[in-house]
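Usage

Read records sequentially. Each one opens with the input sequence:
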Amino acid sequence: AHKRFAAEAFARANGIDRRVWGKAGARIGLVSAGKNWLDLVHALSLLGIDADGAERLGITTYKVGQTWPLDMAGFHDWAEGLDLIVVVEEKRKLIEVQVKEAIFDDRRGRRVYGGRKGTEVLFPTHYALDPVEIAQKLGTILIEEGRETDAIHAGLATIEEARRADNAQELAARLPYFCAGCPHNTSTVVPEGSRAGAGIGCHVMALWMDRQTEGFTHMGAEGANWIGEAPFSTRNHMFQNLGDGTYNHSGSLAIRAAIAAGVNITYKILYNDAVAMTGGQANDGDLPPDRIARELLAMGVRRLAVVYDAKEEPEWSGFPREITRHERAELESVQRQMRDVPGVTAILYIQTCAAEKRRRRKKGQFPDPDRRVFINTDVCEGCGDCGVQSNCVAIVPVETELGRKRAIDQSACNKDFSCLKGFCPSFVTLEGATLRKDAAAEISLPDLPEPDLPAISGTWNVVITGVGGTGVVTLGAVLAQAAQIDGKGAAMIEMAGLAQKGGAVHIHCRLANRPEDISAIRVATGEADALVGGDLVVSAGARTLGLTRTDRTGAVINSHEIVTGAFTRDTEFRIPSADLSLALERRLQSRLQMFDATELARKLMGDSIFSNMMVMGAAWQRGLLPVGRAAIEEAIRLNGAAVEANLRAFAIGRWAAHAPREAAEVLAGPEPEAPPDPEERIARREAHLVAYQGPQLARRYRRLLDRIEDDRLREAVAIGYHKLLAYKDEYEVARLLLTTREKARSTFAGDFRMTFHLAPPMLPGRDGAGRPRKRAFGPWLERPLRWLAAMRFLRGTPLDPFGHTAERRMERRLITQYESDMAEVARSVTPETRDIAVALAELPLSIRGFGPVKEANATAATARRAELLQAFRQGGGAQVEQAAQ
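and closes with the structure output:
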């Protein structure tokens, strides 16, 4: 009866809603509020319309300060005499509805455009509005209403040109991903055939990780969708992920609803001791895991299991006796049991957030185990099972003479050790090892000339890109602070989302001589004056390139290949660097400079974390940032983090831009070894086979190669045949493991103790996934390894104790099969079938791994072999082309 009208009277008395441009008697009125008001002002500027121009064109604008309830009387007064009212409003239409209500009794033919203009969608209800989009729509309307000017036509032409240029293809994506060692890497896995639901929290990222996770809901409704779906589904059960922060906020109510509904569901509640997605805050109320367990049982869950990381075993005294306890290696079997229990069950998974562990360890507030993981790349097959088992982004690719292998990025590793579950003997753990830091190269920076800083006309628009968690957001903060120190205006928005988890970061920073010259904060299509690119993938993405324009944007980009989370699931994933660089060159042409800032930071400062500041220094030296050097340096000091190092990085970046040839020489280092020619590659593999078993095996290798005349096919056979002949049995693994200590010394210092992680075939036992169980063996194993390596002369003989296993028999069968296939191919290969023959010759490269992993890959290769042979024997045609692909 009173409140709404009092609120309207308050808005009217205080002038909260007001006319900004134009005056009474105008015929066209534009209405907006908040962020969309800034977009509207920006859009009008793109059409060459300012306050005086609006008045000449009979346009007036109304800025709504109180979106609900709208000051009806004030709006009615403003709208007097208007023929057309356009409400610029994104998402759900709140103002438009009230505008129509305000003039409903006195329309006098006045039209209102908002979400729609007749049947045409004008400002859609999904996503955010863009100033360019608004300008296009308003420009068309103004021309239709007879308000066209040369400036409006010119603005629309410029917009159309920018829209046409905004056609870049997405060549690679940098999706947010679980941190290295994140508990979600393990906790979100479900048994084969099961399904899990997502919700609010970091675990939502499982949606794009091939983890049978689909569907998500708002906080407090986790599992409620299954309540509605269950009666109509042939599925009997599902899992639901839930974080401890969400549980405490409202997720407990969803569990109660599921219990009341009587559905079959298992809640997997991760207690990671942090609200990780939004910055690692503590849970409100300090809810400990034992209390969660007691609450769950009090609610009425049928069964509760507590799964924990053995490195963080909880204090059990406060937990109820009804629970069962399990180490995380048992999670698979626990889940299989739970899905057979009718009703609502729960798994409370306890493991601290990896990012919080890292922060706390730096402060000495969390145990830091004296243990590091190292991969012997000679033993590694590059099968990727370690990535499958751990889902860890600290596992990175390493290119070697014998193919792509794996390594641990020690700077990213959070010591979760779940990668040890990979069925591979190449993993060792080291105690007492300290990371060997490369000594930073000494370089004396010359006096550098000061660049000509760009003049600001209106705004100067800077886009900064990078990878979440690498400090790229700091660049935007430093630049905005520097602008204020310089007496300029600055407006900045950080579009990060989940980017602190390794995803794409976009920062829009608009600089002006006066703060009032800045309207919208976002940089619109084709409006970027400078692109400061901390990451190649994000910088060359369609979203970023759409903001640039060939004749306007200058850019400095870090060309380093920073691996994405896709590598954990795709063993052959590669950053398409050449294509990304070409896309940038086509768009930016001579205004682009690229250099490997990551490697330069590592070589000159001993830490790649300073690469982003180097890119910013290079951009400033190229005259892309309209703020003074003294202001930027003062902003770095005010930021307070690693001040001297960041100042040095900024200076090195300036030097890299001014002297790109000298910087390239530092990056190049010693003259790189030329790639081996085909004959040299064959000779190296012959030498490897001699070391593997002896000269007789090398002669066998050479005999097959000498029968192949086609050069391309011969090179493919040289690689594929060697892979089969040098299969990694117990003798070879022992021989290669003996090099581990020497190889580890290139990465670590100290008198470290090695532990091997192996699954010897003679020892019984299976893990939770049903695979042979891996065990830890101390440094005493090195002596037996020497004995075993010396016994390799038994390989393939009747006295070979390992030669009768299914895996060894399969490997010998593959060799004879390959020799037969290549003999057939060599006799009858033609230009039409060459691609098929090469694909068949290289097929052994896909048979990677050990034990069950190799068996699965061999099964897939057998099916592929049949397809290739059939196509080859048909002698060409469409089927041959299809088989080659």
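Summary fields computed downstream for this record:
- DSSP finds 33 helices and 28 strands in the chain.
- Residues 851-874 form the longest helix (24 residues).
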